[in-house]
Amino acid sequence: MRKTAIVVTMGFVLPMALAGSVFAADETVKIGIGLPLTGQIGFLGQQFLKGAKVATEVVNENGGIGGRKLELVVRDHKGIPAEAVNVAKRLIYEDHVKVLNVDLPASATIAVEGVTKEAKIPQLGGYAFSSLTLQQNDPWYFQTSITSDTLAAAAATMMHDVKGNETVAILAPNDDYGRGEVTAIKSALAKTGSPKVVYDDYYERTQTDYSPALLKMKSVNPSSLFLDVRFPDSVTVLKQLAEFGIKKPLFSTINFYNPKLVAQAGQYMEGTFIALNWAPELNDPASNAFKEVYQAKLKELPDANAELGWTSVNVIAAALKSAGADADAEAIRAALKKTDWLSPGGLIKFDEHNDAHVPAHILEFKDGKYHVIN
Amino acid sequence: MFELALQQVANGLLVGSTYALMALGLMVILGILQVINMSQGQLYMLGGYCSYFATSILGIGYFSSIAVAMLMMAVGGVVVERVAVRPFLKRPFYITFLSTTAVSLMIEDAAQILWTADPRPIATPFLPIPIQIGPVYLSMQRIFIFCFAVASVLAFAAFLKWTRVGLAIRALAKDRDTAMLMGINADRIHTLTFAVGAALAGAAGALIGAMFGVYPSMGELPLLKGFALVVMGGMGSVFGVLGASLMLGVAEGLTAAFISTSLVDLVAFATMIAVLLVRPEGLGRWGGRHG
User: Fold this and answer.
1) Which residue of A has its CA nearest to B209?
2) Residue A339's closest CA among A325, A354, A327, A353?
3) pLDDT tens across B201-211, in order?
4) Could you say which residues of chain B have pLDDT below 50?
5) Domain B10-117+139-278 class?
6) Does the predicted model carry a pTM greater than 0.80?
């Protein structure tokens, strides 16, 4: 009898409580964020989220969206594309978000493009470096992150400019990002003429030992190495290079900008050149404003991943402010098209393919620190 | 070309020995208890964290931290056996499969919440300086792991062959009912078997975690490869598992060198299927009736 009473009470109370939360949530303007917050690349998602949350706080402190609070609805997809699709569907059909940003890795972004295209909901690629995301013929997708083509062009130029760098061996992750990046690098190097790619290979995200690939790289004796390897794999790769006595000039991307990597393997990174979207070493007004507010709120310096989250939410907020808090998806898409916002990484202004063309920056790791080259 | 092949074979043997450590812990539980312990990967991960915390917080030396990891995981194994295996031993095998899977998910999620996804480096006395033997480059840490793994396999084989407990374990594996009729306390042996299997996983976590960092999901792939190696090795053969592990390490190295790194796992599991096609009973086994 007592059990029945509890069940009946719960049956009434629970739906009412849930309904209450729905009514309360209606007062906010929701953005859906899907990221790997756990799993191997969970730390990238966590950093992106920090930037996104700081941006949301700042937007709300400045009046929100037409007087209504901006709310991030965050879901974890563990970096698995199939999970990312489920997350996107829940964000759209259960959470009723206005705009989506589901990223990391790029294969997750691409998988979600199918969902947002069908649902006609704007989607931002805030952390989707692969140029493949822009090749889906999707009018609902907007890329605010740098693309692998831009990164590759900058990386090819920096490799070309190093004297005596005649050949290069490449290692990248076996996913859409890695394959897109290697294709882009090869294409960019074909334009610069040198160095010549003498080896390229991919590692699996689940891989822990890179020695077979590194030994193969060593056997072809390249002038330099381009290692687009994610943290924490980068720590192992750098240590294993030292184990096998492989000493070559190193080139990389955002994956080698990481204070934790410096702490664990900084001694093996000396002289490494890095092409990336942004770094806290940049001193322009937009970067300084971002660093100031981020440090005030989190008592730490932002990194390149946090900058992507900051930019994504700010771009969405700018479009929502312009379109209005009650705007429908089509109005938000039109507002995004007209976005003109200066991010720390560069001006966000979309072209006809919805690419913001964020420029690349070159850093050198020297004397235990990153230095901006251009 | 020959030098590259030689280097990959040498490296593959060292990599294979790390697989053997993980597979041995799985083998002892699967081969003897007929329990698919899905939490073994997480015990391996916890072993890595034990070593990390022992060295970084308690200031214990790296070699002692391996012993700490083994001890702690032996206790962890007993807890898993009591909570998620023993209550379901007389139920169909998939019940313990599910219960240990639940434990593995809980442990990994708890680790994620407590320690985040960030990998932790274990401080070791090994310097990343190459040791050159002819055309082959090796590292002191890899040689140590290889020696530790081979010594563990030999010690475990000796334990099974020449101790009373080892005899009891083998008797239970061959014919559980007869062994119990002969007065063997099956419950005690089960607990002990879990403790030994978990301690081996803990050692593997401490050794491999020191090479590649310690993080919550580090046990997922080794678990999968470990099961494949137990099947390849012959569901209960210590030396079969060692042989299969070394073979897998070499196959992976040669694949990476002469085909592609991205096909390493494909070739690894294709090797397993090929071995089972040629030798369905695996590379070696104790023989006798199981279950």
Assistant:
1) A208
2) A354
3) 999 999 989 98
4) 286-291
5) mainly alpha
6) no
| Confidence band of A1 (pLDDT split at 50, 70, 90) | very low
User: What ipTM score was computed for the predicted complex, to two decimals?
Assistant: 0.72
Query: With a CB-CB cutoff of 8 Å, which residues 161-180 of chain A face chain B?
Result: 171, 174
Among B117, B211, B257, select the one facing A39 at the smallest CB separation: B117
Q: Which of A147, A107, A141 is nearest to A124 (CA)?
A: A141
**A232 CB within 8 Å of a chain B CB:** yes
In this structure, which long-range contacts are made by residues A13-19, counting pairs with CB atoms below 8 Å and at least 24 apart in sequence?
none
Distances in Å between the Cα of A341 and the Cα atoms of A303, A317, A362 are 20, 11, 22
Q: Which pair of tokens denotes residue B184?
A: 């063997």
Q: Which domains does chain A have, with CATH numbers?
A: 7-146+284-348 (3.40.50.2300), 149-276 (3.40.50.2300)
Domain locations along chain B: 10-117+139-278
Q: How far apart are CA A239 and CA B129, in angstroms?
A: 9
Q: Which region, left, alpha or beta, applies to residue A230 given φ > 0 means left and ψ of -120 to 50 means alpha?
A: beta
Tell me whether residues B261 and A40 touch, CB distance under 8 A. no
**DSSP annotation of A266:** G
Which among B4, B109, B142 has CB closest to A215? B4
Query: Regarding predicted confidence, which is higher, A226 or B274?
Result: A226
Please check whether residue A205 touches B, CB under 8 A. no
Nearest to A235 among B213, B216, B261 (CB): B213
